[in-house]
Amino acid sequence: MRYSGADAERLVPEPGKPGDERDPWEIDRARILHAAAFRRLQRKTQVFGPGQDDFYRTRLTHSIEVSQIAKGIALRVGADPTLCEAASLAHDIGHPPFGHAGERVLDECMAGCGGFESNAQNLRVLAEIEVKSDAYQGLNLTRATLDALLKYKRSHSEALAGGEGKFFYDADLPLVEWVCQGQRDERTSFECQIMDWADGVAYSVHDVEDGMWARLITRDSLRSRRLPKAMAEAVPETSPAAVQGVIDELLRALAPDDERARRAAVKTWSSYAIFEMVRAAVAEPADDGGLGPRYARRLCVEPEIAIKSRLLKALAQAILFRHRSVSSVRTRAERIVGGLFRALADSPELIPEDWRTADPRRSACDYISGMTEDEAARTYRKLSRFGPSASTGANRAPG
User: Fold this and answer.
1) 126: in domain
2) I need a labelling partner for 325 at 20 to 30 A (CA). Which of 2, 92, 188, 335 fits?
3) Residue 301, strand partner residues
4) Residue range(s) defining the domain that contains residue 224
5) How many Å apart are CA 330 and CA 98, to the nearest integer?
6) How far apart are CA 333 and CA 102, in angstroms?
């Protein structure tokens, strides 16, 4: 696939290191891998909290798996695999502690103050919050890598006016216009579509796999009379045969009574399911509308495989996410994230100096969303013990 010089441009031009033979996407991937925000994903919830068991996926391992899947898709359809890997590694880098529950709480806290949305926070982390050089803010990634992360090209104000829930922050409009070279619309780049499908593949398969390892998705739960109805209601364009086909696949994977044989069968199922979904992705020509080669193709997925992915998500929702060991994260998020935000917004001097901006509420939001779950819990306990008016000092606030 052809990439232009504009694709490799950075907002702030850099001379580069003498003798550096890496291409721009390899440099971007390295910057993301070495970012502090990327490391913090190791202690952020995917489905199960990071303290529940060392086996289950975290946001970090999920992001690594998404990047591997994206690389496979890119090789299949002729996109640059390193560019797709870089975007996939960063696709959750702005996600707050406690998964989507934490995201909802922060958005409620930021109502009327610009909102919170994890995709918007991805861009903010990469372009402003992360520190790499005194010469620029953020990681100064290439236009193509940032564009591959822009799933939603509407600002917060535009989203509110249109009744939409996904957006980028209003303050980032100049950056997004630069990324889009003044031709912003709802279309996404080919690489963004690859990243998005890779993400969907990963969590539709791996959430179910983790649920089986956790003995929450079992032969008995799969035989529940309510399950097919719940799946069909979530994916109304499906057929009863497709619903039962997904259930039967999982029943076969859980059929062995021997523990080792069952583990092998579950792993074989997840491996083949991912392979099947990667193989179902194809590139089709598209009118680039003057946006360049990265918009001249679109990613298409075989309809029955796309439906299968959605059915797996519906199955996980019906069994896994309703279980108290998973759903309890919502209560923790409301207590810890909500409590932290109120305390820090009321006493912004408790926010570490390097997290402060002109807007105390955005500063509190940035600081909390960047925390690991352990750090959030420690900081919450500290503020609860001493009270937000305690003279702990900003440098002691992180805990």
Assistant:
1) no
2) 92
3) 281
4) 191-323
5) 8
6) 5
Question: What is the spatial distance between Cα 175 and Cα 184, in angstroms, rounded to a whole number?
Answer: 11
Model confidence at 391, in pLDDT bands (50, 70, 90)?
Answer: very low
Domain membership of residue 350 (yes or no) is no
Q: Are 175 and 11 in contact (CB under 8 A)?
A: yes
Residue 328 · residue 263 · CB < 8 Å: no
Provide the residue type at 17 as one letter.
Answer: K
pLDDT for 269-289, tens place per residue? 999 999 999 999 999 999 998
What is the Cα–Cα distance from 156 to 196, expressed in whole angstroms?
A: 21
User: In one letter, which amino acid is 51?
Assistant: G
- DSSP structure class, residue 281: E
E strand or H helix that includes residue 283:
strand 281-285
- Domain total for the chain? 1
Alpha helices in the chain (DSSP H): 24-33, 36-40, 59-77, 81-89, 99-109, 118-124, 143-149, 156-162, 173-179, 190-213, 219-222, 226-234, 240-253, 259-279, 303-319, 324-346, 360-369, 373-386
pLDDT of 168-204, one tens digit each?
999 999 999 999 999 999 999 999 999 999 999 999 9
- Residue showing tokens 């890496």: 22
Long-range contacts of range 296-301, CB-CB < 8 Å, 24 or more positions apart?
296/190, 297/1, 297/77, 297/190, 298/190, 298/193, 299/73, 299/77, 299/190, 299/193, 299/194, 299/197, 301/197, 301/277
Average pLDDT over residues 84-99: 96
Tell me the two tokens of residue 132: 């790499």
Phi, psi at 186, each rounded to 5°: -80, -5
Asked if residue 224 is part of any domain, the answer here is yes
CA 213 to chain centre: 22
DSSP structure string for 289-314: TTS-GGGSEEEEE-HHHHHHHHHHHH
Give the pLDDT of residue 170.
Answer: 97
Tokens of 88: 């996939």
- What is the Rg, in whole angstroms, of the alpha carbon atoms belonging to the chain? 22
Burial 190-206 (b: 16+ CB within 10 A, else e): bbbbbbbbbbbbbbbbb
Closest among 63, 94, 247, 97 to 167, alpha carbons compared? 94
